[in-house]
Amino acid sequence: MSLSYEEIAEILKAIDSSSCDELVVETGDVKLVVRRNGAASAPAPVREPSAPAAVSAAAPASAKPAPTPAAKIEAGVNQSIITAPMVGTFYRAPSPDAAPFVEIGSVVRKGEPVCIIEVMKLFTTINSECDGRVVEIGAENGELVEFGQTLFVVAPAA
């Protein structure tokens, strides 16, 4: 069983309107971890392998490394931030061979696309929430981003 985009959106809405700081949902081969405002999590319990063969098993070649916590990016005076509205994979361009939507120094207008976030093969275009010049990009292409993570810092265009 897997989670649909709509189910994930409902989970995020429920977390947003509650006092819960962290939620872990596991269904079959999918594990969804939602943390509010960078809430620290307790270390995951360590399970001892049941057989020596499990110790020598290698991870599949296609396995992605675990994401590292993103550095906190803050906006300066008169600067705005564009945050991730969901947990997913951040992409700077509409396709692998296309140019990025924006670079540092790019001028953006409210409503223009700045990136894409993928959640379970569903791609959501994230649009600029303000006019200005991109002064910082808070995620790397292909990186897993968290709900509320700063994606872009935008300063008023001079």
Description:
This protein is mainly β. A four-stranded antiparallel beta sheet has the order 3-10-8-5, with no helix packed on it. The protein has a four-stranded antiparallel beta sheet with strand order 7-6-4-9, with no helix packed on it. The protein has two domains: 38 residues, no CATH class; 76 residues, OB fold (Dihydrolipoamide Acetyltransferase, E2P), CATH 2.40.50.100. 11% of the residues lie in helices and 31% in strands.
Q: Give the neighbour order of strands across the main sheet.
A: 3-10-8-5
CATH superfamily of the largest domain: RNA polymerase II/Efflux pump adaptor protein, barrel-sandwich hybrid domain
The CATH topology of the largest domain comes to OB fold (Dihydrolipoamide Acetyltransferase, E2P)
Give a short account of the largest sheet: 4 strands, antiparallel
Name the quaternary structure.
single chain
Please identify, by name, the CATH architecture of the largest domain: Beta Barrel
Strand percentage:
25-35%
| Outline | globular
Annotation field: number of helices: 2
What number of domains? 2
Structural class: mainly beta
Low-confidence stretches: 39-70
Number of strands: 10
N-to-C SSE series?
HEEHEEEEEEEE
Supply Rg: 18 Å
Helix content: 10-25%
What CATH first level of the largest domain would be assigned?
Mainly Beta
Q: Residue-averaged pLDDT, rounded? A: 76
Could you give the distance between the termini? 51 Å
